[in-house]
Design brief:
The complex is a heterodimer of chains A (about 160) and B (about 450). Helices cover about 15% and strands about 35% of the residues of chain A. Chain A has about 160 residues and is an alpha+beta fold. Chain A has 2 domains: about 60 residues, no CATH class; about 80 residues, Beta Barrel (OB fold (Dihydrolipoamide Acetyltransferase, E2P)), CATH 2.40.50. Chain A has a 4-stranded antiparallel sheet with strand order 4-11-9-6, with no helix packed on it. Chain A is globular. With about 450 residues, chain B is of the alpha+beta class. Chain B has 3 domains: about 100 residues, Rossmann fold; about 70 residues, ATP-grasp fold, A domain (Dna Ligase, domain 1); about 240 residues, D-amino Acid Aminotransferase, Chain A, domain 1, CATH 3.30.470. Helices cover about 35% and strands about 25% of the residues of chain B. In chain B, the strands form 6 sheets. In chain B, strands 13-12-9-10-11-14-21-19 form an 8-stranded antiparallel sheet. Chain B has a 5-stranded parallel sheet with strand order 3-2-1-4-5, sandwiched between helices. Chain B has a 3-stranded antiparallel sheet with strand order 7-6-8, covered by helices on one side. In chain B, helix 12 packs antiparallel against helix 13. The longest helix of chain B is centred in the middle third of the chain and has 17 residues. The chains are: A alpha+beta (about 160), B alpha+beta (about 450). At the A-B interface, helix 1 of A face strand 3 and helix 3 of B.
């Protein structure tokens, strides 16, 4: 049974919402293995990300791209540059700093650790910290301070450093 | 009122956006990731992604909806049906955030959302209710005692109910315990409220509901009734207006009871009062009130010429209704079929997926409300409604013939739909004779191998 790209997207979207930490699928010669990033970590930080496990090679080149359920992705160029996108885990107001007169959480060029807060998304007075999710250097801040951001929108791009 | 957040998806989001356009209101659509690129997001002036596919993380999130509305400069929110439409906390939260909720006041939503409280409210006003419990029953034994008093068969229903969930017919005492436990568990899972109540089960009953509209200037009008007796597992499939089985006397009583209930409850906006009718005994009983625009509202629109969604906006903006009770005329007959993404020949199995071909019927006296198109992918996360096909005619037979013709011209490929089921139902002698009841589909149509009526 040939599997279409759209089928794959549907499967991935279903898995992403199903709450599994790991997922494997074999259809014919096609193998998919997914693990949720930070599966063991507390929920609520970065957006749910589904990525292919490094151990099993994807049968097609497309899965990693399709594996991102949030579709308005960082510009392709960002991905090509090897930058990692930190996306909005929920719709709300984007804030770069913890208070109006406080310095921003991150500046372009600054280093971040995975658990560092890079920004805040406010939803009805509730402040949600958004974590970097990886270690690296802040390459770009993609949203404007105090602007409404959509679910899945790219907020910050990070150049990962091992 | 200038800009409206449409807090819903699918065909009702499209319907609300169209009404807004007609009224010169700007629209903001919201969508989950599964609905990216869907028709409402294309039609609205602006669209926002509010979360992942699962509705508890997107369409059911009150905080997200309110933030989206405020962040885009909306001054009103239309909830559609389902999702947050009958959520009193949402209506309150909108008001607290300076947003006009296009619907009734939160207190009425809360009163009518508790089916036991609503039943007591109706009984107090002298509106007949089916004999059963005054309050919730907390155990199978308690339910059994009531059942003995009212007589089997009985119906177990969820206090927080709706959509047939948490509902069980019990025909004999031996089946009560299991039915009680299942209904309780189902209600708890669906509504977070496992409370049940008991009613005598009325055999061969019809479901007839009255459309009401009320404003803040003292008007509370009825716009005739709809007959929604054709159901499968308590889900409405075909609706029509007027009801083919009501006598003029019974109709008058029903409309009167409905407006009394709505007025006494302090209702505002469009609402529906549902009744169970025993045509043979000329009896009717209050079932519940739905405090929202309903799926089947177009049949009322086609026989009255009233745009119910536009009236909802007028009322929400503080304007009086655009007509009086004396000006309400029910002309002709309208029938609606709900076309779902289901395989009727495979036990109505859901059939999401890519629509590879979509040609909706057009013609005299026809209306199709839909969000589907060729190339649209029906997501597996939400209800299966694809389209409502509604036909109006001078009489029931003309409406039926037009609808049957329209279904024959409705070409959908790529997914299964309930179109063939509707064609068989509309051609069935029982439907033609209006000799049906709420269990007819299961007991007669499917029971007798409905494929060859």
């Amino acid at each position: 049974m040939p599997i279409e790209r759209d089928d794959l997207k549907e499967i991935l979207a279903a898995v992403a919402t199903a709450g599994f930490d790991e997922f494997s699928l074999e259809i014919g010669d096609m193998k998919i293995h997914l693990t949720r990033q930070g599966a063991a970590a507390a929920p609520g930080g970065t957006a749910v990300a589904v990525a292919p496990a490094p151990s099993s090679p994807p049968a097609r080149p497309s899965p990693p791209a399709a594996a991102r359920p949030s579709a308005p992705p960082a510009p392709r160029s960002a991905a090509e540059e090897g930058l990692v996108a930190v996306t909005a885990p929920l719709l709300g107001t984007f804030y770069r700093a913890p208070a109006p007169d406080a310095p921003p959480f991150v500046e372009v060029g600054g280093m971040v650790e995975p658990d560092d807060t890079v920004c805040i998304i406010e939803v009805m007075k509730l402040m949600n910290n958004v974590r970097a999710g990886c270690r690296g250097r802040v390459a770009r801040v993609c949203a404007e301070n105090a602007a409404l951001v959509e679910f899945g929108q790219t907020l910050v791009l990070i150049e990962p450093i091992a | 009122m200038r800009r409206v957040l449409v807090a819903n998806r699918g065909e009702i989001a499209v319907r609300v956006i169209r009404a807004c356009r007609a009224l010169g209101l700007e629209t903001v659509a919201v969508y989950s990731e599964a609905d990216r690129g869907s028709l409402p997001t294309e039609l609205a002036d602006r669209a926002l992604c509010i979360g992942p596919p699962r509705s508890t993380d997107s369409y059911l999130r009150i905080d997200t909806m309110v933030t989206a509305a405020r962040g885009t400069g909306c001054d009103a929110v239309h909830p559609g049906y389902g999702f947050l439409a009958e959520n009193a906390a949402f209506a309150e939260q909108c008001a607290a955030s300076g947003l006009t909720f296009v619907g009734p006041p939160p207190e009425v939503i809360r009163l009518m959302g508790d089916k036991i409280a609503a039943r007591q409210f109706a009984a107090k006003l002298g509106v007949p209710v089916i004999s059963g419990t005054e309050a919730a029953v907390h155990s199978a034994d308690e339910a059994g005692a009531v059942a003995e008093a009212v007589g089997y068969p009985i119906l177990l229903k969820a206090a927080a109910g709706g959509g047939g969930r948490g509902m069980r017919i019990v025909r004999a005492p031996a089946d009560l315990r299991e039915a009680f436990e299942r209904a309780h568990a189902e209600a708890q899972a669906a509504f977070g409220d496992g409370r049940l109540y008991v009613e005598r089960f009325v055999e061969q009953a019809r479901h007839v509901e009255v459309q009401v509209l009320a404003d803040d200037h003292g008007a509370c009008l009825s716009l005739g009734e709809r007959d929604c007796s054709l159901q499968r597992r308590h889900q409405k499939l075909v609706e029509e207006a007027p009801s083919p089985v009501l006598s003029d006397t019974l109709r008058r009583e029903l409309l009167e009871a409905a407006t009394t209930l709505a007025r006494e409850a302090g209702y505002r906006s469009a609402g529906t009062i549902e009744f169970l009718v025993e045509p043979a005994r000329s009896r009717y009983y209050f079932l519940e009130m739905n405090t929202r625009i309903q799926v089947e509202h177009p049949v009322t629109e086609l026989v009255t010429g009233v745009d119910l969604v536009a009236e909802q906006f007028r009322v929400a903006a503080g304007l009086p209704l655009s007509f009086t009770q004396d000006e309400v005329r029910v002309l002709g007959h309208a029938i609606e079929c709900r076309v779902n993404a289901e395989a009727p020949d495979q036990g109505f199995r859901p059939s999401p997926g890519l629509i590879t071909g979509w040609v909706a019927p057009e013609g005299e006296g026809l209306r199709v409300d839909t969000h589907c198109f060729e190339g649209y992918r029906v997501p597996p996360f939400y209800d299966s409604l694809l389209a409502k096909v509604i036909a109006v005619g001078a009489d029931r037979e003309e409406a039926r013939t037009r609808l049957l013709g329209a279904l024959g011209r409705f070409a959908v490929s790529g997914i299964h739909t309930t179109i063939p089921f509707h064609q068989q139902v509309l051609a069935h002698c029982d439907f033609i004779a209006s000799d049906i009841h709420t269990r007819w589909v299961e007991e007669v149509f499917l029971g007798s191998g409905g494929a060859t009526p």
